[in-house]
Amino acid sequence: MPRRWPLDLKPGAHTERLATTAVGVPDPARKEIAEIVGAERVSSDDDVLVDSARDWWPLSGVWAAQGRVVHRPAAVVTPTTTEEVAGVLSVASHHGIPVTPAAGRSGVGGGAVPVCGGIVLDCTGLDRTGLDTAIDVDETSMLVTTGPGVFGDVFEAALREKGYTLGHWPQSIDISTVGGWLACRGAGQFSTRYGKIEDMVAGLEVVLASGRTLRTGGAPRAAVGPDLNQVFVGSEGAFGVITEATLRIHPAPKTEQREAWTLPSFEDGLDACRRILRRGATPAVLRLYDSHESRQTYDVDGCVLLALDEGDAAIVSASMAIAAEECDRTDGAAGADPALVEQWLGHRNDVSALGAAIEAGVVVDTVEVSGNWSDLPRIYSDVLAAVGGVEGTVVVSAHCSHSYTDGGCLYFTFAGMVGDDPDDKDHYYVAAFNGAVEAARGAGAAISHHHGVGINRAPFVRDALGPDAFDVLVGLKNTLDPAGILNPGALGLPSPFLPDGWTWS
Ligand SMILES: Cc1cc2nc3c(=O)[nH]c(=O)nc-3n(C[C@H](O)[C@H](O)[C@H](O)COP(=O)(O)OP(=O)(O)OC[C@H]3O[C@@H](n4cnc5c(N)ncnc54)[C@H](O)[C@@H]3O)c2cc1C
């Protein structure tokens, strides 16, 4: 279950914002499930159902302030073992009940919302409570095995106790789980050194909709057909339930260096990042802010570039030296106070402003997309123009949060004020969010870099992948989950529970 919300629900009766057929859990199925997990782990209390009817999607925060939730399940079931997950899914398959896996519920696009009702499978019970430890470490192979329901801060603390790190630091580390990271193909703030979660995964245990359990991966760089780990990484609960994960780890860092610069323009900064990566340097953190965010966050003119590296001293020195050389080579660049990095570290996970902004009537969200270096300048300017052109927009800005040899992630933030009418807020949100996604895609971007698809990007997936590639996903879904019970609507896939899609009520 979630650890906290940006905004408490307005008290009183809660109406649903999504008009879809709600599938119930018939009594015989409920009884069978209770026998599998224990009656105390099957809940239909309205407080629990309402809590499972939303995630951290900022638009659902706007609705929470209005006393509305996205969509309730009929029951919340909390298994604690792989066998229990298999049993629950097999009963659900037999009775044709949709099952939406959910964990920390920190997803920002409605991905864990049970859009057709049915069962919410609360995966936070798969946290190895009752075992001696939340993690098993193979120190020789540098691998850790854990349960998907372990929250990020607990997981990383257990690793640190043994002298290791995963190096995965999403801003939501204390409200998200290992399984959620994998299911959404997430990224941490130190990803330039450690990679995204898809780079860290070595093996998975997954339960399919039928209850059948399989293992993927297990040995490095195997050439035994395609990498099946990657079928499930990013599958957002639509292909199977992840019940165990083995991830690659690193020695806890002994050295750290920090630097900051200002670049004359965002485009100059992007080019400096490109050259740093091209030379093989991978400072764990490389964050470039546009002029708006540089002024607002750091009170600095120009575009702030922060670099932080950690790990082996020789590698850190080389990486940071290359970063400095490439910044120095940029006309008009200047060194900035490295204390800016400290400032970022101190506030990097503080999102208390979100709830306050929603309460003040502001409609706000972020859109993170990835693109090749050759496309990023246009992606930046087209998204700014598209969202800036939506009536009500007060601000739209961006930073480059992750860099690779071939491109990077642009992380846009927008905010708008359109008065108190709930419909006006929804219309503004859809115009701004969809406008950003469409403009980014038009300029060559992938429509998400680490937040995943959820509800709000689902309508874009077919076009974003192309109809033929999308059909590969449809084929996988039909093979792995023939009755379509797992997370109906996820990834924009067709679902027997959503013959006409969904509409807002
Ligand atoms: C303030 C804030 C900051 C954030 N910062 C980042 C960031 O820096 N980087 C980043 O990548 N994301 C970030 N996110 C987004 C979010 O935290 C991630 O998407 C996270 O990975 C979701 O994990 P969760 O446990 O909360 O999953 P949930 O939100 O509960 O579920 C997300 C999806 O995963 C599926 N799922 C969950 N568990 C399983 C399982 N065991 N098996 C199969 N499917 C499963 C669900 O069905 C759903 O589709 C942020 C969110 C917030 C609110």
Which terms summarize this structure?
single chain, alpha+beta, Uridine Diphospho-n-acetylenolpyruvylglucosamine Reductase, domain 3, Alpha-Beta Plaits, GMP Synthetase, Chain A, domain 3, seven-stranded antiparallel β-sheet, binds flavin-adenine dinucleotide
In short:
The protein has helices at residues 27-37, 46-51, 58-65, 82-95, 152-161, 178-184, 191-194, 197-200, 229-232, 266-278, 291-298, 313-328, 339-347, 352-359, 376-388, 422-442, 461-465, 467-480; strands at 15-16, 18-19, 42-43, 68-69, 75-77, 99-102, 119-122, 135-138, 143-146, 164-165, 201-207, 213-217, 241-248, 250-251, 255-263, 285-289, 303-311, 334-336, 363-372, 393-403, 407-416, 503-504. By secondary structure, it is of the alpha+beta class. The protein has a seven-stranded antiparallel sheet with strand order 18-15-17-16-20-21-19, with helices on both faces. It has a five-stranded antiparallel sheet with strand order 8-9-13-11-12.
Topology of this protein?
Layout: E1 15-16, E2 18-19, H1 27-37, E3 42-43, H2 46-51, H3 58-65, E4 68-69, E5 75-77, H4 82-95, E6 99-102, E7 119-122, E8 135-138, E9 143-146, H5 152-161, E10 164-165, H6 178-184, H7 191-194, H8 197-200, E11 201-207, E12 213-217, H9 229-232, E13 241-248, E14 250-251, E15 255-263, H10 266-278, E16 285-289, H11 291-298, E17 303-311, H12 313-328, E18 334-336, H13 339-347, H14 352-359, E19 363-372, H15 376-388, E20 393-403, E21 407-416, H16 422-442, H17 461-465, H18 467-480, E22 503-504
Parallel strand pairs: 1-4, 5-7, 6-7
Antiparallel strand pairs: 2-22, 3-5, 8-9, 9-13, 10-14, 11-12, 11-13, 15-17, 15-18, 16-17, 16-20, 19-21, 20-21
Bound molecules: flavin-adenine dinucleotide.
